[in-house]
Amino acid sequence: MYALLSSIPYWGQTILRLIGGSVAVLLPAGTIVYLFLFKMMSFMQSRLGPMEAGPYGSMQLFAEVGKWLQKEDLMPERADKFVFKIAPLVVLSSTFLLVVVVPFGPDAWITNFEAGVFYALAVSSVSVLGILMAGWSSANKYSLLGGLRAAGQLIAYELPMILAVVGVVIQAGSMNLQNIVVAQNAGSIFGWDGLGNPYLLTQFIGFIIFMIAVQAELTQTPFDMPIAESELVSGYMTEYSGFRFLIFFIGEFATAGVFAFIASVLFLGGWGVPFSWFGWTEINDVDNWMNVGGPLIMLTKMLGLVFIIMWVRFSYPRFREDQLQRFAWKILIPVSLVNIVATSVLKVAF
Amino acid sequence: MPKVPGLFKGLGVTFGTMVETITHGANTVQYPHVKEAPPVRARGVIALHEGNCTSCMLCARSCPDWCIYIEGHKELAPPRRAGGKPRAVNKLDRFDIDYALCMYCGICVDVCPFDALFWSPEYEYSEPRIADLLHDKSKLGEWMETVPAAPELEVGADKKGKK
């Protein structure tokens, strides 16, 4: 089913993928910020949020971006200038690298990488480097504390995330995200294939652990210790202003979108619909229209998952640093290890 | 584990608020388009009834912020009764309140023995320039129109002043 792709010349594919990748990063970021950060948070606090810029404040994002672009590019005198400047870009680039392996349709992928899961989990930790760089180069004690907290937290929650994904990999028998999608949609639950076999059902514990770890990786409340504004001003972002802060901001919500994409691929069946609905059995049967429908399905699932992330964010207060570490090491990691063992045993048994 | 039901309850509260905001509207008001009427006795701005003021300076002296500026001079007014002496009255030259300093404590209103100062619930008088927050006596006099009528006295209360 790569007929559609091979009919386009290589440079055409490259341009399509560049555009597709940018859209896949920036469109979710904008949607998440408007829909959830502006509107849903306001509704949950019984207010209306931005209403003036455009109908229902829908143009507010452009106003915000315009405001940030106008601001002065400030830098502390004793900051490590080079590191300070590239740190936001490192954070944002990890988001772009992450979206590379996410499949959006039978042909709508940027790279169909065999070890896609491995790559995604590895690249997602690059953002820790960017955050640590930002914190350390700012020459500010709040920034440094925030950066160190972020490093400790992100490393602690990377483990349960990886271990939660291992269960999916064992069940699908592949590290390729495309194959994981196909395995879910072509699968069946005890012979009934009306829903495929989304790993949400079989790997429910893995899904919960993965979503908690994602929440921590995104440093969203209740895991926002690194940017705890009441103690650390704004953590590693304290000294950033204008465009560089904007990059951090986009990075935060774009990463939320991309992680939700990955979670929907791993647990919710990704771009696919249950193949039995249209009589497909494998990826080569899938019709061409899924290249358009797939991204829309992905977008819907992504918005659903980000809704949960943001809902949790707006509902809970912040964890203390020791609670946060204890939760990762004493609860999430043991549970995910048990999950792996159980999955392997059941995989062999069935 | 015992905390888990509480966690879901918390999620329910935020979700319920969201649904209520969407279906029944928010608790907030879209300010420039919709205005909330402040309570009648709200401390919005202080109005000056110039005719009652004797420039006794009690308000200026009691102001914790020293934001009231009063200048006056004595004038001779015609006698009350024919053949009497001309009376000396205090003429108010300047009465300014600097709302950039005022902290709305209301001591000046309380302390005024001649009912020359009143609270008005008006609140829309912000200015682009901080110096414009100094309201002179004509502007303070204009606020008198917005002062609500004094509440009725309680039954049996003694009405102060001349019988």
- Mean pLDDT over the residues of chain A: 84
Q: H/E element string of chain B?
A: HEHEEHEEH
Q: Roughly how many Å is the radius of gyration of chain A?
A: 21 Å
Multimeric state of these chains? heterodimer
Give helix % range of chain A: 55-70%
Which chains make the largest contact?
A: A-B, 14 and 15 residues
Shape of chain A: globular
The total of helices of chain B stands at: 4
Gross geometry of chain B: elongated
Give the strand order, joined by hyphens, for the main sheet of chain B: 2-3-5
Task: Summarize this structure briefly.
Chain A has 14 helices and no strands. Chain A has 350 residues and is an all-alpha fold.
Structure report:
The complex is a heterodimer of chains A (350) and B (163). Chain A has 350 residues and is an all-alpha fold. Chain A is 67% helix and 0% strand. Chain A contains 14 helices and no strands. Chain A is globular and about 65 Å long. With 163 residues, chain B is of the alpha+beta class. Chain B has a domain at 45-146: Alpha-Beta Plaits. Chain B has helices spanning 4-24, 58-62, 107-111, 137-142; strands spanning 45-48, 68-77, 87-98, 117-120, 134-135. Chain B has a three-stranded antiparallel sheet. A two-stranded antiparallel ribbon of chain B has the order 1-4. The longest helix of chain B is centred in the first third of the chain and has 21 residues, at 4-24. The radius of gyration of chain B is 24 Å and the shape is elongated. Chain B starts with a helix and ends in a 21-residue tail after the last helix. The interface between A and B is medium-sized, with 14 and 15 residues.
